[in-house]
Amino acid sequence: MKEVAHGWVKYIRDFVREGNIVVCKVLRVSTERGHIDLSLKAVNDHQKRERIQEWKNEQRAEKLMEIVSQIQKKELEECYTEFGYELINKYGGLYQAFEEAAIDEETLKNDGFKGKWLKASSSRP
Predict the structure, then answer these.
(1) Class of the 45-122 domain?
(2) I need a labelling partner for 81 at 20 to 30 A (CA). Which of 15, 103, 114, 117 fits?
(3) Is there a contact between 38 and 25 (Cβ–Cβ < 8 Å)?
(4) Diameter of the chain by CA atoms?
(5) Is 121 exposed, middle or buried, given 0-12, 13-18 or 19+ CB atoms closer than 10 A?
(6) pLDDT at 85
(7) CA–CA separation, 94 vs 100, rounded Å?
(8) Which residues pair with 5 in a beta bridge?
(9) Are 40 and 24 in contact (CB under 8 A)?
(10) What is the pLDDT of residue 50?
């Protein structure tokens, strides 16, 4: 981590710990050295909140994919190969795809998606 704080850092663990989820900006990538320079201080509080919310939404969408794969009696990776990666490419993320489908149940069909999984992904509790 190249840029941690605006002031002097006595204990790095005050800012980052192993296993924590942190939002930072990539400053530089050195493939030759295998290093990535990151900055915590280049990210403001609003950006942190926004990015963490996006991450949480994608975690929810991943859980929904797991449920769809269980209903379809298929492995998760099989569902990604069959339609998940295509949803990500089309909508920019699973969450966005499922959000569009929640707004209008016909959206995925209208965008050319087919299969039994459509019913499982749009079923409501």
Answers:
(1) mainly alpha
(2) 103
(3) yes
(4) 57
(5) buried
(6) 95
(7) 10
(8) none
(9) yes
(10) 94
Mean pLDDT in order along the chain per 10 residues (125 residues): 65 76 87 86 90 93 92 92 93 91 85 78 51
CA distance 100 to 88: 12
Whole-angstrom CA distances from 106 to 91, 95, 98, 111, 120 are: 15, 16, 12, 9, 13
| Separation of alpha carbons 101 and 80, rounded Å | 17
Query: What pLDDT is recorded for position 13?
Result: 72
Q: What is the pLDDT of residue 125?
A: 43
70, HSE (Cβ side, Cα atoms, 13 Å): 6
List, by residue range, all CATH 1.10.150.190 domains of the chain: 45-122
pTM: 0.68
